[in-house]
Design goal:
The complex is a heterodimer of chains A (355) and B (563). Chain A has ten helices and 15 strands. Chain A has helices at residues 18-24, 76-91, 97-100, 107-115, 150-158, 193-197, 206-210, 265-269, 297-315, 330-343; strands spanning 2-5, 8-11, 50-51, 70-72, 138-140, 165-167, 174-176, 203-205, 220-225, 234-240, 245-250, 284-286, 292-294, 320-325, 349-352. In chain A, β10 (234-240) and β11 form a beta hairpin. The mean pLDDT of chain A is 92. In chain B, α1 (2-8) packs parallel to α10, α4 packs antiparallel against α7 (120-127) and α4 crosses α8. The radius of gyration of chain B is 24 Å and the shape is globular. Classes of the chains: A alpha+beta (355), B alpha/beta (563). At the A-B interface, β9, β10, α8, β12 and α9 of A face α3, α11, β9, β10 and β11 of B. The complex binds iron/sulfur cluster (2 copies) and FE2/S2 (inorganic) cluster. Residues 226, 228-229, 231-233, 259, 263-264, 266-267 of chain A line the site of one iron/sulfur cluster (SF4).
Chain lengths: 355, 563
Amino acid sequence: MRIQIDGRDVEFEPGETILEVARREGLEIPTLCHDPRLDPAGACRTCLVEVDGWRRMPPSCATKAQDGMVVRTRTERVGRHQRALLALYLADHVQGADACETGAPCELHAMAAKVGAPTDWTPLEPVRVGRDDPNPYIEFRADRCIACARCTRYCAEVEAVTAISLVGRGSKTTIGTVDASSLLDTSCELCGGCIDTCPTGAMTEKRPLLQLAPPERQLEKVRTTCNYCGVGCQLDLNVDPATKKIVKITSPPVGTPPNDGNLCVKGRFAYEFVEHPDRLTTPLVRGEDGALREASWDEALDRAARGLMGVKERYGADALGFVSSSRCTMEENYLVQKLSRAAFGTNNCHQCAAT
Amino acid sequence: MAGLVTTFGAGAMTNSIREIRDADFLFVIGSNTSEAHPIIAMEMKQALHRGATMVVADPRAIWMTNLAEKHLRLNPGTDVWLLNAMAHVIIEEGLTDEAFIRDNTEGFEAVKETVARYTPEEAESVTGVPAEDIRWTARRYATTERAGIYYTLGITEHSHGTDNVYALSNLVLMTGHLGKPSAGMNPLRGQNNVQGANDAGASPIFLPGYQRVDDPEARAKYEEAWGVPLSPEPGLNLNEMMKKVGGQVKGLFVMGEDIVISEPNVSRLEAGLNNVDFVVVQDLFLNETCRFADVILPAACFAEKEGTFTNSERRVQRVRKAVEPPGQARADWEILVDLAARCGADWGYTSAAEVYDELARFAPKFAGISHARIDEGIGLQWPCPDDEHPGTVYLHEGGVLRGRGAFQAVEFRPPIEMPDPEYPLVLSTGRTLYHYNAATQTRRGLGANAKQPAAFIEIHRRDARARGIESGEMIEVSTRRGVVRCRAIVSRQVRPGSIWMPLHFPDARANLLTTDAGDPITGTAEYKVCAAEVKKLDAATLDESEREPARFRGSYYAERGPV
Ligand code: SF4
Ligand code: SF4
Ligand code: FES
């Protein structure tokens, strides 16, 4: 089956939306409420396109491609619609990209700039209300919310706990919880998926805000693998280039295996330990008096080597046990078994939690 | 793990995580997926959103049972009965894949004979699962093309863990649900790099890449590479090693683990540790095991070093350095290189990538994988035998890797310790969403402390009432091996007669309670079943902070918590 988009003849699989076919072809259509992980909502109307023979412009994210359809994504009418719509959204948003983007980059500002939407429409009085929530991780900033419902749909469809939902009507529509309770007292699992999917930074990490960290676009992202469970989610450590500290963790784009842009509470938020004052910062050796004291690397490594070799001399290599760790890297596990087998001559080497 | 190597020829998830969303039938057993593997649970939720059917077999009413078509609430430790009875139904009703059995497997007759005795009716009396539910599940599993099995420690952490894996493998083999997308047999790994640590040879019987130490050819290859003779004697597995600490084992090197929290029957282990000559601990924090250490080496964490982790779906992925380690802490691999040099082994690695290259060179499964290749794109899934190979999405596509899939007839063996009048409750241990293992990392975080601020057990209302216990109160749990104090949560998740306890909390170490009776093959201890008793603590013995009931906010465990 085929459709025509902007003059190109394109094949598609039954069930694909116009947006999916267009994106596969590398055609850009602006979207706000769309996230490939979610069922199409057709709520924000940014993605409207013209279809020959249709009087109204359908949302491309929620309209299935049909055989023989002729679609136009960049006509005068589509452009006019995009500019007016985004200008309207901007009027009900934090004014100016710099003021807005204190956290994640704002897709609305970027998109408005791209389609050339006027930025001088009179700002509306902010009417949407947020709320204080003592949860440690997630902040909702109502003045940035465009009520696209990505967060609430994510919470219902992907995380399947429905801790947050749209509340209120019309221009007062906002994101709330049952009885306006703290997320901590709801079924929320603090996965932070609502933050990840939010296009405008309305749902955002609380700690970087409190720490007055630089906005996300100034941070350096280092792609790495989560150090908790065996899913091995890919994540980006966002490092402040000035302080060389981790400011927050974000998930890579949707589609990146194995986690498809999702993370859990541990992967996204439980990195406080990295900079915890309890971290060991120097080697320690036990003195004659039985107490631990600080030592140089030279001294500590010498003691360790002599101690282990001593046991081998006195009782043989099989009196040694090497406990390796499923928390450490492949390389480190390889080296522990090599140490055990090649340097000491015993196969008494096992990782903890061999299950 | 070892179980799957025996039956299929490779101990890993047969399929990829991304395939779960396309499955039509999900059989989840012994896996509290939404807490232990939230991302896998999201994949399952997507499959269900699409219309798939899920059956959860678990003694507890875990969160996933909300979405399950059926919850098979089996008595702890009776998995073999349940699984054999499912096999019984599949054979009896002629739902086996005869062609697959004939062409790809061996040993079916023995299984057929054994499971003939495991009727669903009798299974009902042992497992507590209605015979009709067993039949229904067996039929649905056997007759759905894309039917996958997902399991975790609820299957393996038993004295008969390997039997459980065998019984599951039998189901896979007799229905031919192998070598296809969105089907197969999928052990979900608890730790980030359990798979990788096994792959890398941190095992008493396997050299890297599952090459046996008692195989002269494999050994010869490494003897030549490393330039030293190697011992042909399989070593002690962790369970044996821990039991022999202070006896045969006089010296220990422990990297990145807190054995006196994570190992079972800790009191005995601690007694042993007082009798060893020398202990080296290498870790991020001054952990509990450090009390016994002669030397403690400060290590870098994952964000401070280079390397790779291998996930449950066999994908080798990069760990990259983003920040500097604190103070003088160093990457474990660098420390190991220096330590080896002082023990007379000059290895000469200058980067983690070089270590990986050596690992890959002698282990054919990983030969095509390198840091450089991963850096060009995304992680690669083994087997990946050469530089051009794209990696393997699901295993056993062109036939079972082992040659023929090995059926293993297994008989039910009861758990080592059953409840009795003195210890009338069955204690299982497990993990929660907010904490992680010994919690050395998560307990230093805000979220975990807001949601689960204190150690707790879950107890059924009936058992709580009989003991005069209210939710949030301090109680004492005891077993033949020890006593710990913690909070009680009166919970709808556990059934009467059972209690459940997370093992994360150092001030209430679940492993003072557990037995170290291990599986004869893997040595994995029976963390899931032991006999216990609970009693309310006399207010006079409590300190100020303990008298206030603890709050577990928005707890799914609570009897009247959010769903
Ligand atoms: S953090 Fe996750 S569970 Fe909580 S509201 Fe956001 S999406 Fe829902
Ligand atoms: S983010 Fe969560 S699910 Fe993903 S690997 Fe980390 S712990 Fe596992
Ligand atoms: S993206 Fe299509 S309507 Fe919002």
